[in-house]
């Protein structure tokens, strides 16, 4: 959940430009507490088959900007050092998947010609002559190591990141924060 979706946060950011540093730091702590609560709710709602997806949920705090990002952050399985690398399937759990037939190219070398904009994009698969053939299934008789078709079943969405959580009343917490500031005389 991106904290931009919390109602009242933009107004709070505009007001903080005129407040002392201590008030800004206190608002940063409040944003951190809200992000921690959201992370705990996401970890509670996520599917727990192996725990890998739960471990990939992270919080990114940007205290200077009073912003927090919570959820599956980072590139989907690409890039070194990203925590989401092996939990790429979180996207399928969150949004679901339609039933389809895909071409699996595991172990086959591919050559891509063309970029798809100015020239037609074509993919050719180089397969070395293999004596072993697949013995059963819908791809029976094709060489092992060559591309094959696989049916993928549909998966219904089980959202855990982008969920409205009415049990967390962020507006009330922000109102209490501003009331405390006004009581101390920082807002006048």
Q: Let me know the largest β-sheet.
A: 2 strands, antiparallel
Roughly how much helix do the residues carry, as a percent range? Answer: 25-40%
The order of strands across the largest sheet is 1-2
| Overall pLDDT level | 78
The count of DSSP E runs of length 2 or more, i.e. the number of strands, is 6
Radius of gyration: 25 Å
Description:
The protein has helices at residues 9-16, 21-45, 52-56, 90-95, 170-184, and strands at residues 57-62, 67-72, 100-104, 109-113, 122-126, 148-152. The protein has 188 residues and is of the alpha+beta class. A two-stranded antiparallel sheet has the order 1-2. Strands 3-6 form a two-stranded antiparallel ribbon. The longest helix has 25 residues, at 21-45. The chain is elongated, with a radius of gyration of 25 Å. The relative contact order is 0.18. Mean pLDDT is 78; it is low at 77-82.
């Amino acid at each position: 959940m991106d904290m931009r979706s919390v109602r009242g946060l933009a107004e709070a950011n505009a007001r903080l430009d005129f407040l002392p540093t201590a008030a800004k730091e206190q608002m940063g702590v409040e944003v951190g507490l809200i992000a921690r609560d959201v992370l705990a709710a996401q970890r509670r709602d996520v599917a727990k088959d192996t725990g890998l997806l739960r471990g990939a949920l992270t919080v990114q705090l940007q205290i200077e900007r009073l912003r927090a990002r919570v959820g599956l952050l980072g590139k989907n399985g690409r890039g070194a050092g990203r925590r989401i690398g092996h939990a790429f399937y979180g996207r399928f759990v969150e949004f679901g998947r339609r039933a389809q037939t895909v071409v699996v190219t595991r172990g086959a070398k591919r050559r891509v010609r063309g970029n798809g904009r100015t020239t037609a994009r074509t993919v050719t698969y180089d397969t070395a002559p293999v004596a072993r053939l697949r013995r059963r299934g819908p791809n029976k008789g094709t060489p092992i190591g060559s591309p094959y078709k696989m049916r993928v079943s549909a998966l219904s969405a089980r959202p855990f990141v982008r969920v409205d959580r009415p049990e967390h009343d962020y507006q009330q917490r922000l109102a209490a924060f501003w009331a405390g500031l006004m009581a101390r005389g920082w807002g006048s």
